[in-house]
Amino acid sequence: MAEFSELWAGGPRFAQAEHFKLGTDSVLLADFVNTASARRGMDLGCASGAIALLLLSKSEKLHMSGLDIVHEAVELAKENMRENGLEERSRIIHGDIREHRRLFTAGSFDLVAVNPPYFAAGSGAISPKSGRDAARGETQCSLEDIVSAAAFLLRTGGSFNMVHRPERLSEAMCCMSRLGLEAKRLRLVCHKAESAPSLVLIEGRRGARPGLKIEAPLILCNADGSESEEYRRIYHR
After folding, report:
1. pLDDT at residue 121 greater than cutoff 70
2. Residue 169 contacts by C-beta under 8 Å, 6 or more apart in sequence?
3. Which residue, among 89, 78, 31, 20, has the nearest Cα to 55 in the 3D structure?
4. What ranges in 116-186 are assigned the alpha helix state H?
5. H or E stretch including 65?
6. What is the per-residue pLDDT across 136-160, written as a single tens digit (0 to 9) for each?
């Protein structure tokens, strides 16, 4: 039996499994995504459905699909949707991102969001713990596989939203451009104002013209270590 708790007071209820924990990166990505004109969204590698759930809580007009290769994650994501009465506004699918052409119709989504595995195969940074390798490292799909799937799924003008590590930013943006997703918005995430970035938030548009907006950094903590005002807003504190 899944144990549910509120993500914030009065917010959606969420259960997580040992290997599918809700991380700060997913929360920051969901806040970064612009849902204003989106009606059909996809959470690629959805795990327990956290990003889909957060985006559904942002927009009542949005329908979210989720795709994950891990059966246990898919079942938990479905439970999270049921717990919040979102069965009619969600569709969680067990499948391989690399099989996207068989599973979906081209151009059928307005937005794609993904918190991908951060570490390339062979990097030595992949967790040896069973169940975590697919979430942390590119053992099941590569960055190019993910971007290729997003480019296929998105309509022209649709948005691709991803959180990643700064050291792979150049690779990510080159891959996006090569596959038809032009980077349009970028935000660096820093622990403190004087800290080097620890994460990057990227929005690309399918078929868009070049032109990148770099937003002010997202600072998580004040100089004294307390949570920043923006961090507290994102977490509804």
Report:
1. no
2. 200, 202
3. 31
4. 133-136, 143-153, 169-178
5. strand 63-68
6. 545 678 999 999 999 999 999 999 9
